[in-house]
């Protein structure tokens, strides 16, 4: 089994959060909501990773919700760092 990295998670979130512009040129994106990491939970389920330690690491590094992982955690935890397995 190849271990997954934070880069894999950031790529997944890049597609699901999908930063884009609306018709008026305003920045919009998707997020499961303040304090929620449901997209991260989906990724963990798909990849058969334990959500709890990953959630803990994200929240400790500015990732309080799906979009904040891209705004904040991505600048703190490098792409090549392996995701914790437990
Ligand atoms: Zn968010």
Characterization of this structure:
The chain is mostly helical. The chain has one domain. The chain has helices spanning 6-17, 38-47, 51-59, 66-76; strands at 20-21, 27-28. A two-stranded antiparallel sheet has the order 1-2. A hairpin with a 5-residue loop joins strand 1 (20-21) and strand 2 (27-28). The longest helix is centred in the N-terminal third of the chain and has 12 residues, at 6-17. The structure holds zinc ion. Zinc ion is lined by residues 31, 65-68.
SS elements, strand count: 2
Could you tell me how far the N terminus lies from the C terminus, measured between alpha carbons in angstroms? Answer: 15 Å
Helix and strand sequence: HEEHHH
Number of domains: 1
Could you report the average pLDDT, rounded to the nearest whole number?
95
Task: Please outline the major beta sheet.
Answer: 2 strands, antiparallel
Q: What compounds are bound to the protein?
A: zinc ion
Output the radius of gyration: 13 Å
Give the fraction of residues assigned to helices. Answer: 40-55%
| Adjacency order of strands in the biggest sheet | 1-2
Work out the helix count: 4
List low-confidence stretches. none
């Amino acid at each position: 089994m190849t271990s997954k990295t934070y880069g894999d998670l950031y790529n997944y979130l890049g597609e699901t959060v999908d930063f884009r512009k609306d018709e008026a040129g305003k920045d919009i994106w998707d997020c499961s909501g303040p304090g929620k990491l449901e997209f991260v939970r989906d990724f963990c389920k798909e990849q058969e990773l334990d959500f709890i330690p990953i959630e803990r690491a994200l929240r400790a590094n500015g990732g309080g919700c799906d979009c904040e992982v891209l705004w904040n955690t991505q600048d703190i935890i490098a792409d090549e760092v392996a995701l914790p397995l437990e």
